[in-house]
Amino acid sequence: MAKTPLQFRHNGREVAIFVDGGTNLLVALRELIGDMTPKFGCGQGGCGTCSVLIDGELHLSCLTLAETVTGRSVETLDGIKDGPNLHPLQRAFADNFAAQCGYCTPGMLMAAKALLDRNPSPSRDEVVEAISGNICRCTGYEPIINAVLAAASGGRARA
Amino acid sequence: MTRHRGRGIAAVNYPIGMNLGGDPSQALVHSNPSGKFTVALSSIDLGQGMKSVTRQICAETLGVPVEDVYVDTADSDTGPHCMGSFASRGTHRVGNAVMAAAREARGVMMEAAAEELEVNAADLETDGRGNIHVKGAPHRSISTKDVAIAAQFKQGKTISGRGIFLVPLSDVDPETGEMSPATCYAHACMVAEVEVDDETGEVDMVRMDSAYELGRALNPRLVEQQLVGGAWMGVSHALYETTEPHYPDPVHGPRDFVEYLMPGPGDICPHDIAVLERPAPDGPFGAKGPGEMCANPVLPAVANAIFNAVGVRIDDLPITPEKVLRAIRAQGGARPQARR
Question: Domains plus CATH for chain A?
């Protein structure tokens, strides 16, 4: 089957790959580009650990056809740190012990970043709402919510 | 429609490790010429923090900084034998094995240092920052890195240690039937408050108050993390998770996280936790282990709270809205019990 050429920005860098028709963005990112930060969880859009930002908006990469991101900007967890410096959200997650097994963490961070980018000082309810599409099997929601609030109140959320 | 508040209590006496013992774990500790140490385990860290805790135990026993210890839990084909990460046994069983291995490795390290400093090993102590010096004479000192290099390239010694921890399998006394189910017990108590809707049968968590006695908390933040998350696993078992109603045929079971329910961030309620520390005589640095115990008291406490709220006694998990509603109808309406 003919492959489709696909060009988009991946964490600020222009990439060009060939994909089979029907390839989802998660597979394109992990297997073709080698960015392993979006995780494969349920593959059905139910767990949120594959979350990425497309033109700044939160999307489930497992339910996004790769071809639909042509010419757009895709941001993953791999792109949110500033060189060797962690993003304030990553720092807050570490400081607040917001990761246990860590499998949900990439999706939680991207959902939290999407929130703080549009609302730098959210309420607790707004944080809960923002991560409500993400499942944490260690059920450690409380430290995750606290970490997002800490990153927001630190005033460093827009790094 | 009325929403009824109810409160329930449960307490557990929780044995650490496999019932009746007979569940060994091994650990191997060795240094490499950089002066860093590796702990080899076949035990697995599932996110409960066993790597962090065994790292602390090893560093503390060796007398070196925690940064100088690496824990490798990679492979049960090549690692030393372990019964596994279950039954709240990680910190207690594996921790004891790591401690034994680190103690043996420390003995070799001190001998190697004694040879370099030309003193008796009994006169040496570690400073916990990567140096070994003569007691009372800190300037007579050598770094663990230099000791490791000397052991490797000059003395021809491996700085290493082996450890195993086994609670022997308890026999049954033929006369009395008596046996010793465990050597180490942790304890927990939980008060759960719920709100039950008598029209829909839905149960909402309002708050939880709990106390956990788990020996010494080797890493208090990890303990807290495990207790917070584990309590919600308990809620999940009590109210949400099941492969039913289609059991036993898995073909008709839940297919996704819409049908297989788990708590989400919107379900959580305030949870106040008190950690009590009564060090265990046979635990590593007095530790027992929070493990499964953090979920256990939640199930009966929630079931009791539902009874307190609407007077129905459900003994079949999970306590779904359908079961609550059918039970309320069967008794002709909600019957709130006295609140204490």
Answer: 4-78 (3.10.20.30), 88-153 (1.10.150.120)
